[in-house]
Every structure is written in C-alpha cells, then in structure tokens.
Specification:
Number of domains: 2
Oligomer: single chain
Number of helices: 9
CATH class of the largest domain: Alpha Beta
Radius of gyration: 19 Å
Number of strands: 12
Structural class: alpha/beta
Order of helices and strands: EHEHEHEEHEEEEEEHHEHHH
Strand content: 15-25%
Distance between the termini: 32 Å
Helix content: 25-40%
CATH topology of the largest domain: Spore Coat Polysaccharide Biosynthesis Protein SpsA, Chain A
C-alpha cells in the first residue's frame, strides 16, 4: 500500500532514554515512508533530549517541555504540532514499545477502509514474547469498569495467551489503548484532542468514548503488531497509577454514564469494590501509601470536588 497519508508519530519521553532509543531504532525499519517522528521530552531530569538529538539528528523532531505535563499534556503538544505540519493522522506510541516493520502500513490500511473509522489500534504483545498483552478494550457502564481483552489477572501472574490466531479479525471496539493509537486528524479537529485534565490514565478510554459519541468508529487492526514492556514510567502498581486511575474513573462515569448507570456504579463501588481495594492495598501489597492514593482519588473524583488541572499544554 502506498504511503499516501502523512502520519505524525508522537512519542513521549520522561526519564526513559534507553526505551525511547530502542523504540526509535525499531521505527527506522518500518516500510511506511510518509511519516514524521516527534519526541516530546516531558521534563526529564537528565539530558535525554540532547542525547536523542545527537543520536537521531533530523530523523526526529525533539520538543522540550519545561516540566512533566503528563501523558495528555505532552501528547496534545505533539498533536498541535502535527496539525501545523499538515498531518493526516496522528499516531500515539509509547516509548517502551518496539514495532513490526509493517505495523503502520496495516493500521493506515484499516483506517482508510471506511471514512467513519476515526481511531485504530493494533495487536500488542508482551515485550520479547509471542504472548498477547492487549487487543481491544470494552466498557461496563454499570460497574464503571473498563475491560481489557484478553483478561489478565495481574501482570505478574499472567503474561497473556499465546497468539494462535484467535484475535485475527478486524472489529469495532469500545476503546483502544493510547499505547498505540492511530487517530485521523479530522477527528481531532471535530472533537478536540485528549482531555488535558486527566493527566494520565482513562484518557484513551475517554477520547474513544467522545469520538464514538460523535459518530466515529474505533477499530482493531489485528495485523498491526507491536511489543510493549509496560509500566516503565509509573510502575505497574504505584500510588500514581492508583490515584489517577481512581479519580479519572469517577470523572469518566460522570460524563458518559446515564443516571441509572452512575447510581449502580456508586452502589457497586462503595458497597463492594472499596472493601476489596482496601484489603488488596493493605494485606496483599502491604503499601499504605497505595490506600492513601486510592482515598485521595475518590475524594478528588467525586462531584463537587473536581478541580481540573489547569494544564497549559491541554489546548496546544
């Protein structure tokens, strides 16, 4: 397939130099030709931006943030630059990934197959394996739970099923992960970029829900293959993940669930889920700071307590 559509690949680097270098080296082998890579250095404490510019020169465009504006703020800065550059597509790609040579060709092929397809995701393997980590996401609006396919108990217990072709069909999905998300620029121009107040987590679910609400489709492209390390910047279970995941879950439900769905979610969350969470953080993880992050996430996520982060990059 000719590389007709111009794609802006956006990679966020935050103190992850080695991962970013490996990702960029894998991108140098892709067969798609009409693309530009922007690396947003999100306030790294070292000289990551300088090293990336020295190693990759004009093959990448390095944008330096003065501090960490989160995944959403950094992506939005890259998105606005892509719009100025006349990109037809934006690809959000985690820096802790490596890609197959034809992954972008396959994603664009699916996205171009229908004008209502606005978002495309691929097949994500656990790094260095042929075990599937993620293919698509669903959303249970009654429990306020975003669902992963395949379902993994924890990253430590299961690395996912072997790929036996069981997820090889193109299909519509509720959401796909910002780890590897191809977005038509037309969608961004119609509905806006990522919600900058989310900072990180649930932002991909929210963006897909907003796009679908406006008539666009989110579609899984099974032949687009990447490998993901996961948890490199925030840790698999950390107070950062717990706080933002909990807070943003409430924000999402307040915006996208019906009145009855939101009531059911609250009954489930405060009647059952909260007690399992307390036991998990204290008895299994044995980390009181995780419980503290969980409680703060609930507090800041409840109606009337929301104070959107004034993110100067949210509208870049």
């Amino acid at each position: 397939m000719p590389s007709k559509q111009r794609v802006s690949i956006i990679i966020i680097n935050w103190n992850g130099l080695d991962d970013t270098i490996e990702c960029l080296k894998s991108l140098s082998n892709i067969i798609y030709t009409n693309y530009r890579i922007s690396v947003i250095d999100n306030g790294s404490t070292g000289n990551d931006a300088d090293i990336l510019e020295e190693n990759f020169g004009d093959s990448i465009h390095v944008i330096r943030n003065d501090k960490n504006y989160g995944f959403t703020g950094a992506c939005n800065r890259g998105i606005r630059q892509a719009e100025k550059d006349g990109a037809d597509y934006v690809l959000l790609l985690n820096n802790d990934t490596v890609v197959a040579p034809d992954f972008l060709t396959e994603m664009v092929k699916v996205a171009e197959s229908n004008s209502r397809i606005g978002i495309t995701g691929g097949k994500i393997y656990s790094y260095g394996t042929d075990r599937i980590q993620f293919v698509w996401g669903g959303m249970d609006y009654w429990l306020g739970q975003h669902v992963y396919t395949p379902r993994l108990v924890t990253e430590q217990i299961s690395k996912g099923p072997l790929d036996k072709g069981q997820y090889n069909s193109v299909r519509d999905v509720d959401w796909t992960t910002g780890c590897c998300m191809l977005i038509k620029m037309k969608v961004i121009q119609d509905i806006g970029a990522l919600d900058g107040s989310y900072f990180s987590y649930y932002d991909d679910v929210e963006f897909c829900a907003r796009a679908r609400k406006n008539g666009y489709r989110a579609v899984y492209a099974p032949m687009a293959k990447i490998w993901h390390k996961g948890g490199q910047s925030s840790g698999i279970v950390s107070d950062f993940v717990v706080y933002h995941g909990t807070r943003n879950r409430f924000w999402f439900m307040q915006k996208y669930s019906s009145k009855w769905q939101y009531c059911c979610f609250n009954a489930y969350f405060f009647g059952l889920y909260i007690w399992f969470a307390v036991a998990y953080y204290l008895l299994i993880c044995r980390k009181p700071k995780l419980l503290d992050a969980f409680i703060r996430g609930i507090r800041d996520g409840l109606p009337g307590n929301r104070q959107d982060q004034v993110n100067p990059l949210s509208g870049y």
